[in-house]
Amino acid sequence: MIHTGDTHVGYRQYHSPERRQDFLDAFEAVVDDAVEQRSTGSRTESDDAVDALVHAGDLFHDRRPDLPDLLGVLSALRRLDAADVPFLAIVGNHEATRGSQWLDLFENLGLATRLGAEPTVVGDTAFYGLDHVPRSRRDDLDYDFASPPDDVGATALVAHGLFTPFAHADWDTEELLDAASVDFDAVLLGDNHVPDTAQVEGTWVTYCGSTERASADERDARGYNLVEFGPDASGDATVDIRRRSLDTRPFAFVDVELAEGEGVERVRERVREHDLSDAVAVVTITGDGDPVTPAAIEDAAVEAGALLARVTDHRAVGGDTVDDVPAVDFADPDAAVRERVREMDLSSLGRRLDETVRDDAVADSNVRERVASAVGDAVADDALDGLSTVDGGDAEDSDDADKQSVDDGRATDTEPETDVEADTDADEQVSMEDYL
């Protein structure tokens, strides 16, 4: 089967409509591969056809996708359905709505299966699902999954989150596997855009990575996993995980270290050394050279054929800054903000909230949940002791305010009561029904 995820359909990266289309094109390329491999049986040397396409969350970049993105996904899912390739998926943090999910709509149309605590059997493998759950609500999870049928040869859990032993982890894989009522042979993950694989307590755990570059840090080729389940000589389940790359829009990474006396002309020379045809040019400047105007470099890259260019001069954010570089570079306002935040001497919680609010990788509609989670963690750790409270007395604790309900293995948040009337801003979380 194909294991993909973090397709982020609808992401208008760099405010570019072409980049938005790129994310849909990448998802469609995965679907095309599944359909082709289903019909030709070209996936393995034994000519086995692909049996399913498994999506590990963040199909959409936002919980309120635009109509062209919805129609594009629907068209791709119909191609899968016509080729008899099941689409098995879970809900990621970017796309989650209050109430019914977009994945539920696709399931009602007969185009998808939303994985949960009950097994979904394809061939001789049982698949289970665990939607993204905010960190502050994970203590309520019991990881109770229904037993697989007796004739199943392997079991796999599809989950969305940042799991150990991989980078940026905040979810303990060993604890999950120990607590789970099913002995999983593999855990197929989404959320971390870097593909990687490890073994945890004898279970294969793997990230498929994103299908498009959602940030300039994602330099390696994009792709997905090919996962094969089968018995070994003794009849025990085996898992074979391989990578397949996708042909996505090229990124040209131009790293320039300026020597003393070098400036904009040297950066332009380095830019012209790359093939920028329809590429996203990512230019990074360090060193001791003269000040460089990012707009001049961006113009040069576009003239050389680039779709667009992004220039980051690290000397303007506290690195090797030359004396005559101004403290604020208006071509990079985020750098100025980061510098000001450092001067404010914020607490660790304050810095975490600041990073959450300004993180481009966090959808606007997810900011409130992330902030609430961070504050909830601080309260649980008594990190707010000694801070003054607003007038009106101490807030009463509510045992029900933070409960996590699990229905068929699918996480749904119980909205806490609040004294503040719900804001009706466009970025508020809405139900899918209200959106439609």
From TrEMBL:
<feature type="region of interest" description="Disordered">
    <location>
        <begin position="384"/>
        <end position="436"/>
    </location>
</feature>
<feature type="binding site">
    <location>
        <position position="58"/>
    </location>
    <ligand>
        <name>Mn(2+) 2</name>
    </ligand>
</feature>
<feature type="binding site">
    <location>
        <position position="160"/>
    </location>
    <ligand>
        <name>Mn(2+) 2</name>
    </ligand>
</feature>
<dbReference type="GO" id="GO:0008408">
    <property type="term" value="F:3'-5' exonuclease activity"/>
</dbReference>
<dbReference type="InterPro" id="IPR041796">
    <property type="entry name" value="Mre11_N"/>
</dbReference>
<feature type="binding site">
    <location>
        <position position="93"/>
    </location>
    <ligand>
        <name>Mn(2+) 2</name>
    </ligand>
</feature>
<comment type="similarity">
    <text>Belongs to the MRE11/RAD32 family.</text>
</comment>
<feature type="compositionally biased region" description="Acidic residues">
    <location>
        <begin position="414"/>
        <end position="436"/>
    </location>
</feature>
<dbReference type="Pfam" id="PF00149">
    <property type="entry name" value="Metallophos"/>
</dbReference>
<feature type="active site" description="Proton donor">
    <location>
        <position position="94"/>
    </location>
</feature>
<dbReference type="InterPro" id="IPR032885">
    <property type="entry name" value="Mre11_archaea-type"/>
</dbReference>
<dbReference type="GO" id="GO:0045027">
    <property type="term" value="F:DNA end binding"/>
</dbReference>
<keyword id="KW-0234">DNA repair</keyword>
<keyword id="KW-0378">Hydrolase</keyword>
<dbReference type="InterPro" id="IPR050535">
    <property type="entry name" value="DNA_Repair-Maintenance_Comp"/>
</dbReference>
<feature type="binding site">
    <location>
        <position position="193"/>
    </location>
    <ligand>
        <name>Mn(2+) 1</name>
    </ligand>
</feature>
<keyword id="KW-0540">Nuclease</keyword>
<dbReference type="GO" id="GO:0000403">
    <property type="term" value="F:Y-form DNA binding"/>
</dbReference>
<feature type="compositionally biased region" description="Basic and acidic residues">
    <location>
        <begin position="401"/>
        <end position="413"/>
    </location>
</feature>
<dbReference type="GO" id="GO:0006302">
    <property type="term" value="P:double-strand break repair"/>
</dbReference>
<feature type="binding site">
    <location>
        <position position="58"/>
    </location>
    <ligand>
        <name>Mn(2+) 1</name>
    </ligand>
</feature>
<keyword id="KW-0227">DNA damage</keyword>
<dbReference type="InterPro" id="IPR054879">
    <property type="entry name" value="Mre11_Halo"/>
</dbReference>
<dbReference type="InterPro" id="IPR004843">
    <property type="entry name" value="Calcineurin-like_PHP"/>
</dbReference>
<feature type="binding site">
    <location>
        <position position="8"/>
    </location>
    <ligand>
        <name>Mn(2+) 1</name>
    </ligand>
</feature>
<protein>
    <recommendedName>
        <fullName>DNA double-strand break repair protein Mre11</fullName>
        <ecNumber>3.1.-.-</ecNumber>
    </recommendedName>
</protein>
<dbReference type="InterPro" id="IPR029052">
    <property type="entry name" value="Metallo-depent_PP-like"/>
</dbReference>
<keyword id="KW-0479">Metal-binding</keyword>
<feature type="binding site">
    <location>
        <position position="6"/>
    </location>
    <ligand>
        <name>Mn(2+) 1</name>
    </ligand>
</feature>
<dbReference type="GO" id="GO:0004519">
    <property type="term" value="F:endonuclease activity"/>
</dbReference>
<comment type="subunit">
    <text>Homodimer. Forms a heterotetramer composed of two Mre11 subunits and two Rad50 subunits.</text>
</comment>
<dbReference type="GO" id="GO:0030145">
    <property type="term" value="F:manganese ion binding"/>
</dbReference>
<keyword id="KW-0255">Endonuclease</keyword>
<keyword id="KW-0464">Manganese</keyword>
<feature type="domain" description="Calcineurin-like phosphoesterase">
    <location>
        <begin position="2"/>
        <end position="195"/>
    </location>
</feature>
<comment type="function">
    <text>Part of the Rad50/Mre11 complex, which is involved in the early steps of DNA double-strand break (DSB) repair. Mre11 binds to DSB ends and has both double-stranded 3'-5' exonuclease activity and single-stranded endonuclease activity.</text>
</comment>
<keyword id="KW-0269">Exonuclease</keyword>
